[in-house]
Design goal:
Keywords: Signal
Helix content: 10-25%
Number of helices: 3
Distance between the termini: 19 Å
Radius of gyration: 22 Å
Structural class: mainly beta
Length: about 425
Amino acid sequence: MTVLRGKGFLAIATVVLMCACTSAAAASTSAAERTALLEARRSGHPVELTEATDARSRTVAEPGGILTTTRSVHPERVRTPEGWVPVDTTLRPAADGVAPGATTTGIRLSGGGDQPLLRLADTGRSAAVRWPGPLPKPELDGNTARYRQAAPGVDVIARVRADGVRLTVEAASAGPLRFALDTAGVAVLDRDGALEFVDGAGQALFAAGTPLVRVPRGGDEARRPGRYAVTPGAAEVRLPDGTSGPVAVELSFTGGNPNWTMVDSGFAKVSYWNSAGPAKVGTYDAGEHRLRSFFVFDTRGLAGREIVSASVTGMANWSWSCVPQPVELWRTGPVGKATTWEKQPEWLTKLSTVSVAKGYNATCPAGPVTFDVTPLIKEAAVQGPAAVTVGLRAADEADNHQWKRFENNPVLSVRLRQ
């Protein structure tokens, strides 16, 4: 692939992708796109418009005269002094602990001893989680750090993502989890059992989603919501009533702007805003728990464009069996941190239904599932919204066979003419 660089395009492309503000900016971006399309046609290879790249978006000029822009829910690139690089969550020893290669949120994990278990940082402001005691030296494997016997009968596993960390606390017996919280330049707020770390202007820089407790269920696992309770300088994770025996508690700490959530009829008042787990669809118990997932995609810069086609692709990693079953993608109203089953958005228009079975076993392994959303994006090109929200749900929410899990980072792909 050819990559076009040059300071002359930088401000122009960024302005148009962010807001499509002026005709002069639009004309300049058209010139940049024409240059890329001409180079693609001349070389016979795709040409990336690096000036239109950001953490979640990428635009490529194709030799056939089409521009393709892709937009993900979670970051896929990180800006460095040398330019944009792919997210690299591989953990390596560092002077102040353990660090990933390249993430959009500053992340440090403990290298052992009295170092904080986890620290998130953003331009001089930070939030750190301290384990109640010295930590062992972690075992590193890719994006994962395991702290064996962090306490008697307790292992802690940290998995780094592009914009945060998922902690799993595996304990031989159930009981409250308590952490010290060290903050600099942020205040900790209790958000209905989840946490937000806000700056002086009230802007959320970091968040900790609703704690989830894994409960065995046959060959699969259910996740029951717990909640945080905040005291000065500390937080406690309170487990659901009746939790006993060995437990695994999942905690997600993130920075940046979350863009997905899930709702569960069995926990109708619980928000799963930007949780660390998979996106779930359907039911596993004949409709007692019905789950739906929502994703927000940036559509800035598409207003007034000629849309050829558009699709949303998500990675399906579990199904009830290898027999294909339908799953639906809808246009919905907007979602946010207050979204729950009881307060979910309106389901406006069914966009696409696909029958698939992926992730049950080696016969039907995990794989991508693509939904056509061309009418939705054509409408967005006319109306010019900054974002669109889509929802995944099963066609029959009382049928266990339609139960599916997806990764929570689908990608919107839009093909358009210059």
